[in-house]
Amino acid sequence: MSARKQKKKRAVRQNSNVFAMFDQRQIAEFKEAFSVIDHDQDGFIDREDLKDMLASLGQTPSDKYIDDMIACAPGSSSINFTIFLTMFGERMNGTDPEHEILRAFECFDDEGKGVVNAEDLRDVMTSMGDRFTDEEVDIMLKGCQLDENSNFSYRDFVRALKHGE
């Protein structure tokens, strides 16, 4: 067995309803694109597959460029079809990936407890960067369960945002 096959890591399994985002024709087109990129036809796109695909297009990407491409897939060194489809679905729907939204909220979670104070978040959102109105923040926080200290679970919020749960 080649050294490449021995070192290959499996992609992290993603639970997702991503297949519901596309019709069968679109899924078939994505599967065809995936197969073109997956040069060794093992069901996973890895660094070597990306290098081969880009080389076939006359490109000579740096290792950092390839690593950055693979890093777009959450938690893995290779990309299976479900992750591939999820990545396209997120890009096509115009939302950030779940892990990026969580990282944004984690900036306000000094104690790492998975909660953010709603009033502190409101102050930041209405006074910094692309400022939101109080009404827009009210809409965002609608349905969030606040505890006795006006904290809400941003993990639950992001799960509902991304998966409708």
Describe the structure concisely for a colleague.
Residues 5-16 have low confidence and may be disordered.
Question: Keywords, please?
Answer:
53% helix, 165 residues, 4% strand, 9 helices, mainly alpha
Question: How are the elements arranged and paired?
Answer:
Elements: H1 3-7, H2 24-37, H3 47-56, H4 63-71, H5 81-93, H6 98-106, E1 115-117, H7 118-127, H8 134-141, E2 151-153, H9 154-163
Antiparallel strand pairs: 1-2
Helix pairs in contact: 6-9
Descriptive account of the structure:
There is one protein chain. The protein has nine helices and two strands; from the N terminus they run ααααααβααβα. It is mainly α and 165 residues long. Strands 1-2 form a two-stranded antiparallel sheet. Helix 6 packs antiparallel against helix 9 (154-163). It starts with a helix and ends with a helix. The relative contact order is 0.11.
Class computed from helices, strands and strand pairing: mainly alpha
| Ends apart, CA distance between termini | 44 Å
Radius of gyration (Å): 20 Å
Estimate the mean pLDDT confidence: 82
Q: What does the main sheet amount to?
A: 2 strands, antiparallel
